[in-house]
């Protein structure tokens, strides 16, 4: 299989699997189960993956990790907003 | 920065961020919040990433995604065991 296509399919699958949690948190307006500390660790790791993707010049890695960074920034914002209550 | 070192650090950070959820599920013996459907999608995506890593011959991608596959298989088993109750 073409490696870029493989990477894109892999990226879509791992990205899709994150959506339900975001929807759940946004819907229930509850971020009790999320740890902002872990989200920060995750965002750091994912950002390094994006950097790695740029160095290696691999679009699937850049795109899927950049998407994951966005999703986790949304989760982090939810954590901050909903935990204050 | 050396790209392999960068990938390894990125992999460690994204792997570490998964540990608390597994510990929480194992400790509380509760997998209510987990969707086995999404875990299956995630395992498929991560497995494709491992495959991608083999094609590209990139050890950081293989190792971090293989670890994530293992973690999610544990979560899937927890889902099956704890949801039956």
TrEMBL record, chains A, B:
Protein origin, superkingdom: Bacteria
Gene Ontology MF term list: sugar transmembrane transporter activity
Subcellular location: Membrane
Residues annotated as transmembrane: 6-23, 35-55, 61-82
Keyword flag Transmembrane helix: yes
UniProt main location, coarse: membrane
Record GO cellular component, one term: membrane
Membrane topology: Multi-pass membrane protein
Record's keyword annotation contains Ion transport: no
Keywords per UniProt: Membrane, Transmembrane, Transmembrane helix
Record Gene3D superfamilies: 1.20.1280.290
Protein name: MtN3 and saliva related transmembrane protein
